[in-house]
Write a structure and sequence with these properties.
By secondary structure, the protein is an alpha+beta fold. It has a domain of about 70 residues: Winged helix-like DNA-binding domain superfamily/Winged helix DNA-binding domain (Arc Repressor Mutant, subunit A). The strands form two sheets. The protein has a three-stranded antiparallel beta sheet with strand order 1-5-4, with no helix packed on it. A two-stranded antiparallel sheet has the order 2-3. A hairpin with a 3-residue loop joins strand 4 and strand 5. The relative contact order is 0.23.
Length: about 120
């Protein structure tokens, strides 16, 4: 396996990026809880508290998974200000598709297609 890159790097929204060393990314993507978080946040941005109730996980688990997903650029973090002036962090999945390929040269490559996180417009109160 080629080990020249360990984390994804998004050049532009919707652009596919090839990951030379997919092991770190795959370790996160096979995690059931990370999958639940990515699935829930692919529909619309959610706060950690909303993910807690949606996924049925403890808040500490949610934050631990969120930190790793944000670090790997699989979740986008954004802030929403409520009418009361409170800031709320929300998270949205940044990936559309992940494709793992094995070549005859015994090489694994991972292609990641990024989504445009700016497409979602939150409802106005």
């Amino acid at each position: 396996m080629n080990h020249s890159s360990s984390v994804p790097s998004r050049q532009a929204d919707s652009e596919a990026t090839t990951i030379d060393d997919p092991s770190i990314l795959l370790a996160v993507l096979v995690d059931e809880h990370a999958q639940e978080i990515l699935s829930a946040t692919s529909r619309s941005p959610l706060s950690a508290e909303e993910l807690e109730s949606t996924c049925g996980l403890s808040l500490s688990t949610i934050y631990r998974k969120i930190d790793r997903l944000v670090e790997l650029d699989l979740l986008n973090e954004q802030f929403r200000v409520s009418t009361e002036g409170r800031h709320r962090r929300e998270f949205q999945a940044t990936i559309d598709r992940v494709k793992l390929t094995y070549t005859p040269e015994e090489q694994f490559t991972l292609d990641v297609s990024w989504r445009n996180c700016n497409e979602y417009e939150p409802p106005t109160p």
